[in-house]
Every structure is written in C-alpha cells, then in structure tokens.
Amino acid sequence: MAATIVENTVTIPEGVTLTLNGCKVTVAGERGSIVKDFTHARLNIEHAEDVFRVWAVNPKKSQASLVNTIVAHVGNMVKGVTQGFTYKLKMVFIHFPITVRIQGKRISIQNFIGERRAREAEIVGDAQVRVEGEDVIVEGIDIDEVAQTAANIQRATKIRRKDLRKFLDGIYVYSKE
C-alpha cells in the first residue's frame, strides 16, 4: 500500500524573515513580528530558503486538515507583517447617540439605548483602536487579535430580551481589510 502524503506550502516574500525553532514560528517584517507555537500539531514542518512547508505522512483526518490550517495561519502572519489588518465597525443608533471611549486596554460604550451603565469591551493583544465619527477602526498585525477585539466590541452591544427587528442599535463590523 502506498503512503499518503498531505502537504501544503507558503512562499515567503522579500522583506519578510521567517524563523523556525522546533514548532515555534516567528515571522518578522516591516510592521513588526508575530510568534506562534504549533507544538500541538505533531506534523512535519520545515523552512528552506523562501518556502515554508507543512506535511503529514499517512495522516488521520484531523491531522490532514491541520496541515492547511497551519499554512493558513502562517500566510496570515506574513500578510499581517507586510500589510496589516483593518476591521471597520459602524455605530448604529436610532434615538440615543452612542459614545465610545478608549481607556487603556478597555473600550467604554456609553449611552447605548439610553442605559446609564457603560458597556465594556476588551482590546486583545497589540490591536490599535480609534474612533472616527461613527466608525470604530481596529488595526493590527495579528489577525486573531484584531478579529477578537472587533468581536468583543460587537458582542458588548448585543441587545437581549428585546425584538431585534425593532431595536437595531449596536456596533457592527462592515469591512475587513
């Protein structure tokens, strides 16, 4: 019986350095560096010249799917250190204007549907958040941190125990770049 090999590669562009220390991958570029640890994967990983390669021999289904997952993570790391990631959120309100303030690693959402208590959301990792008019812009080099910060903001304005067809207020992601 022939051996089944599942493999995938990522090409590393000019200006980006990838270092592999065991299963710990470090990608550095003009915007910064990102470190991720893939020791849980138990796959074969190698880096030669400008190609990052992940493969498994006779894998189980979970190992075979993990090959493409790790390659996607490394591809996002390369994209993050070269271009960065930007999520744009829109403040939507009908009657009570929402006020968003950034206080260190926390975001305070005030006057949401007339509530006296401010709602809070956490900024994850090194993501940068700024408010421009009715837009909240989340930027960073790690897509996991940027996406989780945007999700925290959107989740903080979730309306409970009201008809969602009528109460449309909230802060919603409308663009991912």
Number of strands: 13
Determine the CATH topology of the largest domain: Outer Surface Protein A, domain 3
Task: Domain count, please report it.
Answer: 2
CATH class of the largest domain: Alpha Beta
**CATH architecture name of the largest domain:** Alpha-Beta Complex
Summarize the structure.
With 177 residues, this protein is of the alpha+beta class. The chain is built from 2 helices and 13 strands, in the order ββββββαββββββαβ.
What report would you give on this structure?
This protein is an alpha+beta fold and 177 residues long. The protein folds into 2 domains: 5-82, Ribosomal protein L6 (Outer Surface Protein A, domain 3, Alpha-Beta Complex), CATH 3.90.930; 85-176, Ribosomal protein L6 (Outer Surface Protein A, domain 3), CATH 3.90.930.12. It is 20% helix and 42% strand. It contains 2 helices and 13 strands. It has helices at residues 61-82, 143-156, and strands at residues 5-11, 17-21, 24-28, 33-37, 44-48, 51-57, 85-92, 99-103, 106-110, 119-122, 128-132, 135-140, 170-176. The strands form 4 sheets. A 4-stranded antiparallel sheet has the order 11-12-7-13, covered by helices on one side. A 3-stranded antiparallel sheet has the order 1-6-5, covered by helices on one side. The termini are far apart.
